[in-house]
Amino acid sequence: MERHLTHHDIGRGDYVLYWMQASQRAERNAALDAAIREANQLHKPVLVCFCLDPRGEGRQIRHLRFMLEGLTETQHLLEEQGITFMLRSGPPHEVVPVLAEDACLVVTDRGYLRGQREDRSRLAERLDIPFIEVEGDVIVPVEVASHKEEWSAATFRRRITPHLDHFPMQSPTPAVTVRGAPTEYETLPLDRPEDLIRSLNPLEDAGPAAFAGGLSEARRLLEWFMTGKLSRYATGRNDPNADVLSCMSPYLHFGQISPLEVALRVRGHRGNGENAAAYLEELIVRRELSMNFVHYDPDYATPACLPDWAKKTLAEHARDPREYVYTLRELEEALTHDPYWNAAQTEMRMTGKMHGYMRMYWGKKVIEWSQTPEEAYNTLLTLNNRYELDGRDPNSYAGIAWCFGKHDRAWKERPVFGKVRYMNAKGLRRKFDAGRYAARFGDTYKKG
């Protein structure tokens, strides 16, 4: 889905500029495809620019290293297609207008978070050539799926499902007719990623993650999921010992693989109807509900986003006594009395990803062990964004808000939580061998 952010005439530039941000890939990228089509019509080459923004996520070493691994592969794939890739340091509103001076028009992908929207608005004010936004990291465009913020997955599912009857297809990336010159433009070298990381003055280092970035690695994991895990997904997805997850979330977060590619691959796999349906529910309904959330709710990163009933019940129980209260440092270093929670925190620190079911338990317990709901919310955002490779993702913001009652209903009232859904260790043990999970991660961090 394309949207014109400016309505100027096409410039007399030397190239079509694609400012890449959300869709960091060279294949099955709707924004890149649009840029190529525009360039072919104008008989111009395509120049792709990525901005290493010193703000926000770019200052988390773990995330930056994963992103640069993906961009290195993207650069090679683009150059094989005859497309020049340029890496520049600086915020987009400073870098892109300079390159746009020699461009016919600018194409970009779509992001849903506040900062991404602000980047596009600031650029639209500065550009005097066409500026086109192309949505390509969802299956159904956000405004098509729903014109308002949805109350729950159930209400959103009813709205988005009719659009899935006409499941979208994506054609192969069109070939360029005018090839670009890779050495013509000044670019930061991707062959020295650690130098680039240091140049951004990173604030902190969460340590290396267990995942390598890039499209080829994402496809390798997807193939592993399709051949060895999908057949057990419906029954095993809530068991962290079952190892049936696709591990696509970091790659989807950085736009290193298209959700449409994943969906078509899963949907086309025969003999896995129940399992495919369960996975597509997560990939499409749950994931795109989170896009709906951050798009329509400006308070998505604060407790102000919660439904009124949740805010009311949490406020009524804010002064309830807590059996345990932990500091941020104690939580970060997995120093609680709960071996299952400690294992989940350690898994996140070690790998950059926590099992989804444990992520819910992890969030609920921080509510129980914090002085106030507001403190718990800030703690969860801090830890999630520091260690999860998909931190600062719509899914992350929706998942944290869910722990406090977002997209959920009221339950039986109890201390601290009020009517917000509660989770405990007994529930874990009923669902899977929690002791086995704790043994796998529980002492690893302390030993290492």
From TrEMBL:
Requisite cofactors: coenzyme F420-(gamma-Glu)n; FAD
Record-listed E.C. numbers: 4.1.99.3
Keywords assigned by UniProt, alphabetized: Chromophore, DNA damage, DNA repair, DNA-binding, FAD, Flavoprotein, Lyase
Top class in the EC scheme: lyase
Gene Ontology biological process terms, A to Z: photoreactive repair
Catalytic reaction equation(s): cyclobutadipyrimidine (in DNA) = 2 pyrimidine residues (in DNA)
Record-annotated Photolyase/cryptochrome alpha/beta domain positions: 14-142
Any single Pfam family the record assigns to this protein: DNA_photolyase
Domain of life: Archaea
GO molecular function annotation: deoxyribodipyrimidine photo-lyase activity; DNA binding
PANTHER family: DEOXYRIBODIPYRIMIDINE PHOTO-LYASE, DEOXYRIBODIPYRIMIDINE PHOTOLYASE
Family affiliation: Belongs to the DNA photolyase class-2 family.
Record's protein name: Deoxyribodipyrimidine photo-lyase
Naturally occurring in which organism (per UniProt): Methanogenium organophilum
